[in-house]
Structure formats: structure tokens, C-alpha cells
């Protein structure tokens, strides 16, 4: 792990102390707990102008909370249209001895968005205003909530419920942003169906969350916006940057920072195959792709595969990570399918989720990834245990060739969990500089990485 005495740029000393305590105590939960993205107490959010208002008193799971059910047809609505709004209390801290919590006011919005198949869908976002007065500046923070079940949706866990119950880890990422005067928007970017790691759907939800937040805040589309996310949160961050010029061209996105980046799932699958910890995400990925793309995946599964997908159904990463481990994709499939990459129906979904293949960002990018030494994975490659250095470098190289202002950083000897803290400091500094309009050096000293070539069709 990195030296805890080393300064991290972009974070206050007080905020950094909280983060260090969190990382040392519960480093894994820093990334896989949904409610880790809040701040200390701040003033209540100014009253929005809702289309429909519902006060939130008892915190219900989204699966049974009527707020999450659209009460109007979605198709006639434009993406980013608010459907319902409500004021909630967001937990900022909890006394571990007494259980007493402190909270602030935030606004939640159910809004119209688009799913991976281009169909009308809905999602929920949480808007948190800073105590600092000043010109509105907005960051869409994408929590790595990594879930197949609504109990880990940020809109739920931020209220102190579900598996993201408030604790020190809940305060990491948004605290320095709010202290700098940013309004922080935290969307449930997986949508109401919790479609995990689905690039376009996550991006649409993130961009429409910004749109609806600007409507609620009575802000013009010229409002400066930043995109930010680590691990699972890198998916909406990167894809939103790719797709914004065509899907939401009116938004003024000034920068995007993604860390622990999932670039090309077809490359990650063999890297984590059979490994003790991260191979457990393979059945979860299969479950999500099946639910999103209607693959009828059971026809390819072995008995073990059927059991594995049933096991992860409705779970969060905190529940299935490493439980069990040492999973191979071949063990989940019938003998005629030696790997997931041999199944024709999976080729399009895998290619559809290659970051950088859906568009070209028009905003500066910051990409970061850890690198365990010696190389890890199966086969061993430079990476953080789940994400690949050469993939992230390849994406940065591609962006530079496309004239996208890009910065890239490797965090040596740090795994996926450990790299979060230094990345967070770098991402905050990057965002502060972009919002301030400062100049920077881009596309210098970036290793070439690997090309992000789509898989060929299987005939």
C-alpha cells in the first residue's frame, strides 16, 4: 500500500486524514460499498421545482418503494425529463457506539433516460449542494456500487440503508468536492434493473442525470460539469465522455476522470479467469449481460454455471466477491463452449462495451490504473488484479490519436483497492484545474498499450 504519510494533491489535510483511516481499516469496502461517496454536514438543499413531489420518511428498498415506479408513460418524454422529486436525508456519519447518525438534506429525482437497446427507461439520481456559496459547478460522481440488486443502489444506501450502511468509508469521495464548492450529483447509473458494467446504458443514465439536475437547479446547459468515477464508476465516466458529443451535445463537460478503468471486457475475462478473488465477477458479468441483451444464456450453461448465476442473482459485489473464487469460465459452460469468447451471442455485447469505440470525447480526460508487481492474473499481465494497464494505456493512446487531451498515470505496486486513494487525489486536482481553466500537459510519456480491436464475428 502507498505510504500514508505521502501528501495527496487535491485534498484537504482533514479530508485526507479521514480517507487514510478508512483505507487502512477497510480498504476493500472503500470500493465496493455503495454509500461511500458523501461529505460532512452541509446546508440543506434549496427547494427544487418538481413535477411531482413526494416526501421521503421511511426508507424503503427501491424494489418496493413507489418513488422508483414511473407514473407516466416514458416514451413521450425527452431524456433528462424529471418524473418525480423528493427531499431525503443523506447520512454523513454514524456513532458506532450509540448508533446516532448525522445527516443533511438532498434531492432525489426519478427521470427519463435510455437503456442499452435504445429504449426509454428511468433512473434515480441524488443531488447534494455544498455549503460553500458561489457560482454553480457540478460534478457527476459515479459510485462503484457494482450490484445486481437494488439494495446497493446509491439513492438507497446514501440514506443509511442496505449494505452501504453509513461508516467512515461513506465519506471519502464527495467530501473534498463539496468542500471546494461543487454540487455533487450521484446517479443510480445502472438503472432500475441494475444492469452492471453496461457502458452505453450507464452513460445515458449519467448524462441524463446531469440534464435533469440542471433542470431541477434552474441551471443553464452552459453550467460547467465534470465526470468522475473509479472501478465500476469508470464505466459511466468513460462512456459518458465518449457519447456526450452525440447524445447530450448541449452539456458543457469540462473534464472526465476515470480510475481502475474497465476498457475491454474481452481482455479482462482471461486475465481474471481462475483467480482466487476476481474470478467471482465472471458469473455476475454473465448475469448482467444476459439480463441486458436478452441472450437466453441458460442454453450455454453447465450445471455449475446455472448454480453460479443463481447464486449471484440480486447480490452486490460485497456479497459475491471471492465467494466462491477460482472460477473458470469453462467450468460454467457446457463442453462445446470452451470459453465465453467462443459463444457467438456474446460477441456483440462484449464489443458493445469497449470503451472508446462508441465515440470520441471532446473534453480533457484523466485515466489512472494500479499495477501490481510482479504481474498478476491468468495469464500474468501488468494490471491491478482486475483491470489491465495495457488496456488503459491503449485507450489513452487512442484518445491522443483522436486529438483528445489526455493524461495517464500508473500507480506502481498498488492493486485495485490500494490505487483508489492516490487516484482520488489526482482526480480531484485534475478537476479543480479543469474548472479553473488552467493549462496542462497532455499526451506525453504515455505507453502505447494494446489496440482495442473488436472481436470478430463467430460463424
Question: Summary?
Answer:
This protein is α/β, with parallel strands linked by helices and 459 residues long. The protein has 13 helices and nine strands. InterPro entries: AB_hydrolase_fold, Lipase_secreted.
Structural notes for this entry:
With 459 residues, the chain is α/β, with parallel strands linked by helices. It folds into two domains: 13-264 and 354-435, 3-Layer(aba) Sandwich (Rossmann fold); 272-352. Helix content is 29%, strand content 16%. The protein has 13 helices and nine strands. The protein has helices spanning 13-26, 29-32, 154-157, 174-179, 199-216, 234-247, 265-272, 281-293, 303-312, 317-320, 344-352, 389-401, 420-435; strands at residues 82-94, 101-114, 120-128, 138-142, 183-187, 224-230, 252-259, 365-371, 406-412. It has a nine-stranded mixed beta sheet, with helices on both faces. A hairpin with a 6-residue loop joins strand 1 (82-94) and strand 2. Helix 5 packs across helix 6 and helix 8 (281-293) packs across helix 9. The chain is globular and about 60 Å long. The termini are far apart. Mean pLDDT is 88; it is low at 1-11, 13-55 and 165-170.
Amino acid at each position: 500500500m502507498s505510504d500514508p504519510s505521502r501528501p495527496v494533491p487535491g485534498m484537504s489535510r482533514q479530508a485526507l486524514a479521514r480517507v487514510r483511516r478508512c483505507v487502512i481499516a477497510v480498504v476493500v469496502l472503500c470500493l465496493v460499498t455503495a454509500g461511500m461517496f458523501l461529505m460532512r454536514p452541509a446546508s440543506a438543499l434549496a427547494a427544487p421545482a418538481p413535477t411531482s413531489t413526494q416526501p421521503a420518511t421511511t426508507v424503503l428498498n427501491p424494489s418496493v418503494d413507489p418513488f422508483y415506479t414511473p407514473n407516466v408513460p416514458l416514451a413521450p418524454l425527452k431524456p433528462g425529463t424529471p418524473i418525480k422529486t423528493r427531499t431525503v436525508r443523506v447520512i454523513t456519519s454514524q456513532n458506532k457506539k450509540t448508533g446516532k447518525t448525522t445527516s443533511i438534506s438532498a434531492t432525489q429525482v426519478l427521470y427519463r433516460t435510455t437503456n442499452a437497446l435504445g429504449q426509454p427507461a428511468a433512473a434515480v439520481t441524488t443531488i447534494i449542494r455544498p455549503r460553500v456559496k458561489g457560482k454553480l459547478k457540478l460534478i457527476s460522481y459515479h459510485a462503484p456500487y457494482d450490484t445486481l440488486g437494488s439494495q446497493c443502489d446509491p439513492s438507497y444506501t446514501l440514506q443509511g440503508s442496505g449494505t452501504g450502511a453509513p461508516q467512515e468509508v461513506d465519506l471519502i469521495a464527495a467530501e473534498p468536492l463539496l468542500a471546494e464548492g461543487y454540487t455533487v450529483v450521484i446517479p443510480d447509473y445502472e438503472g432500475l434493473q441494475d444492469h452492471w458494467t453496461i457502458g452505453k446504458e450507464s452513460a445515458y443514465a449519467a448524462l441524463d442525470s446531469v440534464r435533469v439536475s440542471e433542470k431541477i437547479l434552474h441551471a443553464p446547459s452552459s453550467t460547467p460539469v465534470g465526470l468522475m468515477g473509479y472501478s465500476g464508476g469508470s464505466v459511466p465516466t468513460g462512456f459518458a465522455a465518449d457519447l456526450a458529443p452525440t447524445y447530450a451535445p448541449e452539456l458543457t463537460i469540462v473534464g472526465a476522470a476515470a480510475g481502475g478503468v474497465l476498457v475491454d471486457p474481452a481482455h479482462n475475462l482471461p486475465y481474471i479467469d481462475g483467480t482466487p478473488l476476481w474470478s467471482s465477477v465472471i458469473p455476475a458479468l454473465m448475469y448482467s449481460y444476459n439480463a441486458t441483451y436478452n441472450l437466453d444464456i441458460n442454453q450455454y450453461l453447465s450445471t455449475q454455471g446455472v448454480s453460479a448465476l443463481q447464486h449471484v442473482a440480486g447480490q452486490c459485489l460485497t456479497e459475491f466477491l471471492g465467494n466462491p473464487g477460482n472460477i473458470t469460465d469453462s467450468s460454467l459452460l457446457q463442453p462445446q463452449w470452451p470459453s465465453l469468447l467462443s459463444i457467438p451471442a456474446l460477441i456483440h455485447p462484449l464489443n458493445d462495451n469497449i470503451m472508446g469505440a462508441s465515440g470520441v470525447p471532446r473534453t480533457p480526460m484523466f485515466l489512472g490504473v494500479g499495477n501490481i508487481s510482479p504481474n498478476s492474473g491468468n495469464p500474468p499481465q501488468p494490471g491491478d488484479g482486475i483491470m489491465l494497464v495495457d488496456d488503459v494505456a491503449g485507450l489513452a493512446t487512442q484518445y491522443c490519436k483522436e486529438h483528445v487531451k489526455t493524461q495517464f498515470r500508473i500507480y506502481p505496486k498498488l492493486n485495485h483497492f490500494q490505487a483508489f486513494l492516490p487516484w482520488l487525489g489526482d482526480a480531484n486536482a485534475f478537476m479543480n484545474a479543469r474548472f479553473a481553466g488552467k493549462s496542462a500537459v497532455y499526451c506525453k510519456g504515455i505507453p502505447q498499450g494494446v489496440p482495442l480491436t473488436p472481436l470478430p464475428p463467430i460463424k
